Amino acid sequence: MPKPLPTSVRTHVTALRMLLVMTVILGLAYPLLVTGISQVAFSDKANGSIVSSQGKEIGSSLLGQNYNLPKTAPSGSTTGADPDEAPAPDPKWFQPRPSAYAYDPKSSGASNLGPNSEDLLKAVEERRAAVAAFDGVDPAGVPVDALTASGSGLDPHISVAYAKEQVARVAKARNLPADKLNALVTKYTEGRSLGFLGAESVNVVLLNRAVSEQN
């Protein structure tokens, strides 16, 4: 009759068996089950809410992005564009709100500057002047979200007021009727979260996709 294994050995064998069983259940079966359910029931969200236009992926409806003019080297320059030069916004696109990290998905976050920060107040006034000049409006009427960055730095939404402020500029740059762009702003206006939280907003990524398909 074989000699029984020591208690300590049996305990370790039992623990190893449990580890293998739970690894299969929680490490393989459960993730595959959840992935399968999400692909069937929430395919778009499970795959990153990808936005496509004319068969090409152009971003995600969950992540804001820049709509800037490409940097070009000064006339006669042999060194190319200045990497430290701030990019200029493209007038043909609705612009998002500012981002502390220039909409870099690898470095999202806020500036962490408080309301008493002189740097923040200076940045707000500089943005106010720049946005007013860019959109051709009174500086006093520039919406707050055009002046301050979001907490994530990747917010794809702007206020309805900021979207409407940009209509005339985009219409002129694209030679499109302002009424058509106003209709698109209305179409892509999203309601308040849960019906009572926050305010109505416009997803810039979706709005700009619709604008690009007008030309």
From TrEMBL:
GO terms for cellular component: plasma membrane. Residues 62-116 are annotated as: Disordered. The chain crosses the membrane at residues 12-33. Coiled coil: none annotated. Keywords: ATP-binding, Cell membrane, Ion transport, Membrane, Nucleotide-binding, Potassium, Potassium transport, Transmembrane, Transmembrane helix, Transport. It is a single-pass membrane protein. Its main location: membrane. InterPro entries: KdpC. It is found in: Cell membrane. GO terms for molecular function: ATP binding; P-type potassium transmembrane transporter activity. Residues 62-80 have a biased composition (Polar residues). The keyword Nucleotide-binding applies. Part of the high-affinity ATP-driven potassium transport (or Kdp) system, which catalyzes the hydrolysis of ATP coupled with the electrogenic transport of potassium into the cytoplasm. This subunit acts as a catalytic chaperone that increases the ATP-binding affinity of the ATP-hydrolyzing subunit KdpB by the formation of a transient KdpB/KdpC/ATP ternary complex. The system is composed of three essential subunits: KdpA, KdpB and KdpC. Belongs to the KdpC family. This is Potassium-transporting ATPase KdpC subunit. The gene is kdpC.
